[in-house]
Amino acid sequence: MKKAIFISILLISTQLFSQSNLKKDSIPALHVKLLNTDYKDFVVVDKLIYAITKGDSLVILNVKNDKLKFTNYLFTSITKNSKSKIIGVTNNGIVMEQNTKNNFIKKDKVEGKIYKILVDKYDDYIVITDEYIRYKKENFIPEKGTPMYRKSGRIRASEKLIPANYIFLDKEQNIWFAYDAGEWGGDVCFFNLNTKEFIYDDWLRLDDDKKYNDKNEYFKDLQNKFSDKIKIHQNDTVYKFPYELGISSGMKGVIYDDESNIFISSSGMHFFIDGSISKIYKSGIKGFYKSCFDEDILDRERPKDSLIKMDFLDRNITEYLGPLAYNKFNKSIYYYSSNGFYKLSGNQCKNSKEFIFKPWIMWKGGLPDAVGYQMNVTKFEFISEKEIIFLTSSNGIGYFDGKTVKYFK
User: Fold this and answer.
1) Is the pTM of this model over 0.85?
2) SS3 state at 8
3) Is 171 helix (H, G, I), strand (E, B) or coil?
């Protein structure tokens, strides 16, 4: 009986995607075959796309004339600085920076398997490997046994740093490391580049044996213990950033708007789809924030007749969230989901959405640590108010010009 229930639930979850993704693009689409490869990442410079192929080759793509230019460099990860110069790191740990003549010069050498390269607001690079975090030519090693070595639900910790599912560098010089363990939940860890401090757990809790009568009594003790991290301001409970964000797994995107509010998309799929768009915004106390969550904006469908009468079948979200992007040309937040690209508008967390278009892109199943699908768009960026460059998991790089879409493979 339990096996039958499991199979039925799995089929319901799978049908949400298999049916919806049989449809073609909602607009005309053209496929441009160049290298017949997928891409790992891209950076936009003056509307040229610097992209890393699956084999680590750095190529330059012009989406206007469909031309591709090869370079002589192999990079595992790339980014750009404030002067729009590319900084990359090779698979053997050589950090290289583009100069004014568009050549690359060696800047540093790092050890270990390369995960990511970032650039802070002062144009200093950060390289994340399975050995350490390299910053200003110093190595910073997280404490052994923390979530940066072990995902939730796993008994044994790795001797090496494990790859994060999502990495983000915010304006306050905090690097976010999001680890998604699927049905086991997940963790978000932080490293502050200013203080060189690691935060392995953003949740505030009381580890005592006291029995509380209600949640108010518990909160009072919690506030007393963490008076430096929890405050009451104008009848609002505010927290010191980045504590108590409430995002433990399934993080797909983080972005700022023009008022420095932070938007976070998170989504998971374990039998059913779950997720929300969160907003972190400033309070009246410096360094403290307020937050809200918007789940109502997501597409929903409540089953009329369920074959299995179980409470959790009422989880009726049918929209699997992906990354976010900020459109600086119209000062708006956009997101991608299993239902396409959308523009957000509204105040606080009372948002509405406007459908842009839905691309037809292959989905890959078999996520580690989870039942579900790999998000088929992992990143997108605006190069004008209506033009979007987006990275797919199996259809190459997409380019939307406001009317049609092209895929470069």
Assistant:
1) yes
2) helix
3) coil
- Residue 94 and residue 1: Cα distance in Å, rounded? 56
Q: Summarize the chain as % helix, strand, coil (round to 5).
A: 10, 45, 45
Residue 120 C-beta-side C-alpha neighbours within 13 Å: 17
Residue 303 — very low, low, confident or very high, per pLDDT cuts 50/70/90?
Answer: low
Strand order through the sheet with 174-180: 166-169, 174-180, 186-192, 197-199
Half-sphere exposure in the Cβ direction for 179 (13 Å, CA): 21
- Say which residues have a Cβ less than 8 Å from residue 337's Cβ, sequence separation at least 6: 267, 298, 299, 319, 320, 321, 322
Among residues 384, 367, 385, the alpha carbon closest in space to that of 376 is found at 367
List pLDDT tens digits, range 200-234. Answer: 988 888 877 788 888 888 888 888 999 999 998 88
For residue 121, how many other CB atoms are within 10 A of its CB?
A: 12
What is the end-to-end Cα distance of the chain in Å, rounded?
Answer: 46
Please state, in angstroms and rounded to a whole number, the distance separating the CA atoms of residues 266 and 340. 16
